[in-house]
Amino acid sequence: MDLSILVPLYNEEESLKELLSWIRRVVDPLDLAYEVVFVDDGSSDTSWKVVEALKEANDMVRGIRFRRNYGKSAALYCGFEAAKGDVVITMDADLQDSPDEVPELVKMIREQDFHIVSGWKKKRYDPLGKTLPSKIFNRTVRWVSGIKLHDFNCGLKAYKNEVVKNIEVYGEMHRYIPLIAKQAGFDRIGEKVVQHQERKYGVTKFGIERTIKGFLDLLSVTFISKFGKRPMHLFGALGTLMFMLGLGSSLYLGMKKLLYVFYYKLSAPLIADSPYFYIALACMVIGTQLFLAGFLGELVSRNGSERNNYHISETID
Length: 317
Hints:
The structure is a single chain. With 317 residues, the protein is an alpha/beta fold. The chain folds into 2 domains: 3-227, Spore Coat Polysaccharide Biosynthesis Protein SpsA, Chain A (Alpha-Beta Complex); 231-302. Helix content is 48%, strand content 12%. It has 10 helices and 7 strands. The protein has helices at 16-27, 47-57, 72-82, 102-111, 128-145, 161-164, 177-183, 209-227, 231-263, 275-302; strands at residues 3-9, 34-40, 61-65, 87-90, 116-120, 157-160, 189-193. Helix 5 (128-145) packs parallel to helix 8 (209-227).
């Protein structure tokens, strides 16, 4: 199969029929064997009934339904597992992503050999409450990841099939698929300016909490990518630094007292009367705990089932 179009959805009953008609109008003339996979993320409206009706009238339609709402990442994960096309395109179900972009996205994957092509909604029809946090978020992710994309959270993306079969998306990590793919060795990442539509039906399913969760997930994915299989490199280094700082401070206070007593023949206050002694003691305790955390993390990592799970692109026998 040439193309899979994945559409994660949650309570989008009004837009599904129109979206499929738009997709067919664009893709049918391309002479591609394709499928449209709707992933219903536990909708509480009649979205699944609409998908069933679309399947009866269109052979290329497939559907996956969750028992409850798990989130967009879960929908994409199951959609990626089910996708059969050599090129996989994801788009939102709310008609804000334009299927007119599909031919060019397919061309960029096939002819320019990108692993991923991410959409960039350069002109957006969203309120300032969404666009401003999005700009801050994208700038931060660019700085942390080194991937020069303008819109990490754009739902309109194209992938080679091998990419979606070799990455794991969970939690709220769908925002970081380019970063996750880069860590798996798929580093040819392109970008295309795409048309953004005004929302025609319903309301947005995301609020300001999306930005907060996004930054927390960025910390998680960055930590896991750099230290997931070598936690001792982080916790051990921090623990050693903290312990040595505390030990050095304690020795300084002790040497200072000895100097006062034996060299200057002066009475000196008790070391325990100094607040710096307790700061030094806290540093040694925290340093020891960090070191032990790294040691325990290393034990868990060494005994993990995926400790030697590497992505091999090809072999020659």
